[in-house]
Amino acid sequence: MINNTEHSTPVLHSSEAEASIDAVMKKYDRESNTRVWTGTPQKVIRLFVAAFSLWCIYVTLFATFLEEIRLTSFLALIIMMGFLIYPAKKGITKPNHMPWYDIVMMIAGTSSFLYFTFNAESIIQQGTRFKTYQIVIGIIGVLMLIEITRRCVGIPILIVAGFFIIYAMFFGLTNPSFFGRLKYLVRNLFYTKEGIFATPVNVCSKYIVVFIIFGAFLERTGISNFFIELANSVAGKYAGGPAKVAVISSALCGMVSGSSVGNTVTTGSVTIPMMKKTGYRAEFAGAIEAAASTGGQIMPPIMGAAAFLMADFVGVPYSGIISRAIIPAILYFAGIFIAVHLEAKKLKLSGIPKDQLPKFTDMIKKIYLLLPLVMLVVWVSGNMMTMQRAASFAILLAIFVSLFDKKDRITPAKLLDALVAGGKGTITVAAACGVAGIISGCITMTGLANELINAIISIAGDRLIIALILTMLCCIVLGMGVPTTANYCIMAATTAPILIRMGVPALAAHFFVFYFGIVADITPPVALAAYAGSAIAKSNPMKTAFNASRLAIAVFIVPYVFCFNPALLLIDTTVLGVITIALTSFIGIFGVSSSLEGYIFTDMTIVSRLLLLVGGVCMIDPNHLTDLIGLIMIVLGCVLQKLKARGEVTENKI
């Protein structure tokens, strides 16, 4: 928040701000509703979670034992930590209290996974000959994983999982015996790599966990504050400066954040009050932060951890994923930036006074904070080392660079905090990935994916646009309230094959479903990121969600562009082809964004809005004729705007 002292800059962690952040996070982010531990129990649990983080780093780097042992022990510890940290429902604040039934469920859930851990070799060798007690153990394991997911992730993903489990049990599986179907279902979900221990959990335990810990260390080096101050120094002085600061800082913070809600609340606690003070409407201020923070999930190099999953699903190196994600991410934030700028011009808003902004020269002195991120990308993209090893070295580098800043130096206490935060952050992702495995397992064993694919293809025929629209709707519905990683896993299993069957390149199909999966965070009726932004802005939640969807219009356009023309993802193209598609896409996004904003030089007439809107949509199609028509319409719309603005000036002078 702005104060009037010279060279003041927003401070991210005042006690008042922390209280506000905690309140909003507890309301909109289930991961923030934790048990209250104090004294010795708190110390013991923190040490246990920190030890888990160290164990995960060790296992990903050095473990040579069976993959089944690694995966089952990983989830056993996730179940144990989940029950220790998350209560059965919100609002339980009694210190050092854990009900007897939670203790029983924790022991039962942990034991079921550890049973698999210590008997992995014999279970693998016994094939399909499972005894009744083993099926019971599997059922307990599945139920306890679902319960932990309910506590730390929420209900929406469980509704999706419940639908697929019920479908499998009563419609999808063909065994006439109920127990036969149950046995087959549990065996596949719990004792094979086609269910809980499928790709999502495998990638989570191998790569994602180390990057979550890396993100926790980066936060403790003060990089979030650095990003906000850097954005202030670059854009704060211009018209509507605080909103532009929100867009830039959220994009940067999104590189190390795996949560749309978390990103919204963390940066929004600083930027939203600044935007309101400048003159932006409350619902618009909350929407800007929500849209920009959701976009953090598509910003390389981390992409909400989905980049690692996509690399595994598609078979493209991680460096190939992040390089292809750059242009679409820039276009997304360009669309928001255009809307923010035009709104500021329409409202005649000023920027932040120069004497209240940090100096850019001061920011340059802290540029070393970016070194861990830069080196991570260099190590991975240059194939110098594996992803997990690169992340581990980046953690050490983050600790090293912090030593140059007395304020944010990583002390032993901060080191422990980072390990605890990393371990705790892994619980939610791992649980969600486990349930995503259940969903994909049910889809695979019942052949439901093929039925869905055939249904959409039969409706669409050979018209790709129809298939894209239907797939988009499926992604938005299935993605509501589901975390980024699990969200993408569900989309990759259910909807991406539809587009691949229609002839869309696999990478473009996976990017398409990933984009429309995460847009559910700002799309009504769920729109958790928008609701979190509205809570800070004290605005109407639904109006904030609709404003966020309008601001993020690029996310509804760009995926169509790279499905029609994969050159935007650097697929089968030349440098000239990339420049052409990026430029036409930017012009198209400008047309649509300005039309929805209703302003360029002055308030638009309905004719200008239609010209800009239709022209922008025309430029989605890679056809040269439609590009030319779209460009002409956008130029004509801008000329009409300019003429109208000049007419108003003349009229006012008279």
Strand content: under 5%
Tally of strands: 0
Shape: globular
Gap from first CA to last CA: 42 Å
Helical segment count: 30
Structural class: mainly alpha
Instruction: Kindly state the percentage of residues in helix.
Output: over 70%
- Could you list the spans in which at least 5 consecutive residues all have pLDDT below 50? 1-16, 649-654
Radius of gyration, in Å, reads 25 Å
- Mean pLDDT, to the nearest integer, reads 85
How would you sum up the major sheet?
none
Q: Which sequence of SSEs, written as H and E, runs from N to C?
A: HHHHHHHHHHHHHHHHHHHHHHHHHHHHHH
Question: How does this structure look, described?
Answer:
The chain has 654 residues and is an all-alpha fold. The chain has a domain at 565-654. It has 30 helices and no strands. Helix 3 (67-85) runs antiparallel to helix 4. The two termini are 42 Å apart.
Give a quick rundown of the structure.
This protein has helices at 15-28, 39-62, 67-85, 100-118, 120-125, 132-152, 156-172, 178-190, 199-220, 223-235, 241-254, 260-278, 282-295, 306-314, 318-347, 360-364, 371-381, 387-402, 412-446, 448-460, 464-478, 484-494, 496-501, 506-518, 528-537, 541-551, 554-564, 575-597, 606-618, 624-653. It is mainly α.
